[in-house]
Write a structure and sequence with these properties.
The complex is a heterodimer.
Chain A (H helix, E strand, L loop, with lengths): L25 E9 L6 H7 L5 H10 L17 H13 E9 L6 E5 L2 E3 L4 H4 L2
Chain B lengths: L18 H8 L11 H19 L4 E5 L5 H10 L4 E6 L2 H14 L5 E5 L11 E6 L34 H13 E12 L4 H11 L3 E11 L2 E10 L7
Parallel strand pairs in B: 1-2, 1-4, 2-3, 4-5
Antiparallel strand pairs in B: 5-7, 6-7
Helix pairs in contact in B: 1-4, 2-3, 3-4
Classes of the chains: A alpha+beta, B alpha/beta.
Main location (chain A): cytoplasm
Subcellular location (chain A): Cytoplasm; Nucleus
Family (chain A): Belongs to the TRM112 family.
């Protein structure tokens, strides 16, 4: 799972829908891999407004990166270093294996072979 | 022998998908994933036809539910949407791996990911600009239960059987559509005639007055009549 994807996924348990704690999930015991991809600044510039920056900072911290600015960077069009850092973090950082925990209900989801699994066991699927 | 054969109709779509690479890479998933068929091709043909319009809307987050082989998401990534992030989901873990492989062999991998999940349950509300769903639409006595292990032989059943009227799964998605789409978000959903799509659309509009619904394409495919409907959230603000 790419780092960018962590900005769009939350706990799947229905009763967590109303809780702000269900997003982002807490990432632990993650095995990371940097997969090099072509740098596309245009993509990052267009995606940035759609990101929940607090979640980016929080997940990065979970994964051991505490160097991000606490507020969403502005005027990144001309800031090549920032764009390259974001490219590396959001698109090149892959979580190969790891676990994700809901801060509201405590349910644990697993990432295995780069695929995050959000299926719930039957007793949680309709609750 | 190529285990993952694409039907000849596939080549009606005049695009530059490298079929040989796709075949070789997908062969380990044969028997475990839904092979591209007339319903997949209907979506490809539709997006080929309206690709410029779809791209003009500049969707940022694109989600395909029940991606199967990943062919539709890969097509969008390769030919239509240059600056979107695509998440291809499926309840079947084999499909998630297949989708990544299909995309990697044909298009840029940088803005593409796949997760395993049940419809939109694990997605952040009001985040999806463009949603595509080719559901299990075949009427069946019941919707199969989700297997417990990856080795189970019944994963493929989930791609087909749609319960009563073939609408059990699509109805669940329709109920969450207002919540999951971003302001002005769009959803393209495939139906077969036995789903009674015009009635479904009429009822949906009654329940969701801020939406617009439009039939985009219809085609006879064997003994089925398939169609794709566009559900568009016209509200510019989140109204729910």
């Amino acid at each position: 799972m790419k780092f960018l994807t962590t900005n769009f996924v939350k706990c799947a348990v229905k009763s967590c829908d109303a809780s702000e704690l269900s997003f982002p999930l807490k990432y632990e015991e993650c095995e990371l891999q940097l997969q090099e991809h072509d740098f596309n600044p245009e993509f990052l510039i267009s995606m940035l407004p759609r990101l929940n920056w607090d979640a980016v900072v929080q997940v990065a911290a979970d994964l051991g990166n505490t160097t991000l600015p606490s507020t969403k960077p502005e005027g990144i069009e001309d800031n090549e270093q920032m764009l390259k850092d974001l490219h590396s973090l959001l698109l090149e950082t892959q979580i190969i294996n790891g676990k994700m925990t809901c801060r509201h209900c405590g349910h644990i989801y697993y990432i295995k072979d780069s695929i995050a699994n959000f299926l719930l066991p039957p007793h949680l699927a309709n609750s | 022998m190529l285990a993952f054969a694409l039907p000849a109709t596939y080549f009606v779509v005049k695009i530059n998908v490298d079929a040989d690479l796709m075949l070789a890479k997908l062969s380990p998933y044969y028997d475990k994933i839904y092979e591209p068929a007339e319903d997949s091709f209907l979506l490809l043909d539709l997006f080929e036809e309206i690709g410029a319009t779809v791209a003009n809307n500049k969707p940022r987050l694109v989600v395909e539910l029940g991606t199967g082989s990943g062919i539709v998401s890969t097509f969008l990534n390769q030919h239509i949407l240059k600056n979107a992030f695509l998440i291809a989901t499926d309840i079947n873990p084999h499909c998630c791996h297949a989708a990544i492989a299909t995309n990697a062999k044909n298009a840029a991998t940088v803005n593409f990911d796949s997760i395993q999940g049940d419809l939109t349950s694990s997605l952040r509300p009001a985040s999806v600009d463009l949603l595509i769903f080719n559901p299990p639409y075949v009427p069946s006595p019941f919707v199969p239960t989700v297997p417990e292990s990856a080795e189970d032989q019944t994963w493929l059943d989930l791609a087909l059987d749609g319960g009563n009227d073939g609408m059990a799964v699509t109805n669940r998605l329709l109920q969450s559509l207002g919540k999951i789409l971003a302001p002005k978000g769009q959803a393209y959903i495939l139906f077969c005639a036995r789903n009674n799509p015009s009635m479904v659309a009429e009822q949906f509009l009654k329940d969701h007055p801020s939406f617009r619904v439009e039939k985009m394409i219809e085609r006879k495919a064997g003994w089925e009549v398939l169609s794709v409907y566009l559900f568009q959230n016209t509200a510019s603000q989140k109204d729910r």
